[in-house]
Amino acid sequence: MLTLWLATLSLVLLLLLLGGVFLHFVRNALHSEDSTRIDPLPEKNQSATTLASDE
Fold first, then answer.
1. In sequence order, what are the residues at sequence separation of 6 or more whose Cβ sits closer than 8 angstroms to the Cβ of residue 50?
2. Secondary structure of the chain in the HEC alphabet?
3. Which pTM does this prediction carry?
4. What are phi and psi of 52, to 5 degrees?
5. Do residues 50 and 42 make contact, with C-beta atoms less than 8 angstroms apart?
6. C-alpha span between 34 and 51 (Å, rounded)
C-alpha cells in the first residue's frame, strides 16, 4: 500500500513540475509588453481626428 501512495505522490509531483515548466515557457514566449512595443496603441487625440476625417 505504501508503494501505491509513493507512486501516486511522485506522479502528482511530476505533473506539477511539468506544468510549472510549461507555464514558465509559455509566459516567456507571450510577453504582453512586446505587443505594445511592436504595435503601439494610437493616442486618444489621434484616433479622434481619424474618426472625424472618415465621416
1. 42
2. CHHHHHHHHHHHHHHHHHHHHHHHHHHHHCCHHHHHHHCCCCCHHHHHHHHHHHC
3. 0.55
4. -70, -35
5. yes
6. 27
Angle at 26 between CA 23 and CA 29, to 5 degrees: 150
Cell numbers for 24: 514558465
- At 18 the pLDDT is 98
Grid coordinates representing 13 are 509531483
Write the pLDDT tens digit of every residue in 1-39.
Answer: 999 999 999 999 999 999 999 999 998 888 777 666 776
